[in-house]
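[Meeting: bench + compute handoff]

Bench side (C.D.) handed over the final construct sequence. Compute side (W.E.) agreed to return the predicted structure before the next meeting so the bench team could plan truncations. Sequence as handed over:
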Amino acid sequence: MGTILELLKAILFGIVEGVTEWLPVSSTGHMILLDELVKLKVSPEFYEMFEVVIQLGAIGAVLLLFFVFMLGVRVIARALNIVVRLPLIRQVNELLGGGLSLVKGVVGA
């Protein structure tokens, strides 16, 4: 039963780290507070390693989503670049005073 309880505590730490990584507050601070409330029964060395690994996982998830988002923006930018070059869209763009080109530039084509 003790092992299951420790596993549930570790899952709780992961959830707190994952949620607070996205907030404009210190996720490390939340980990310290949670450690004061819910102690993991591990050695201090293991806990330090646990904190590093759990934060690396959260940072890795943020980086992965960032790169997926950036890839999506690049795909959209390429699509806009192609669309703005179409003859009919060029005429609409001229009527709008270059508004579509502005949107394309903001997206990063």
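W.E. noted at the follow-up: The longest helix spans residues 44-84. C.D. will use this when planning the next construct.
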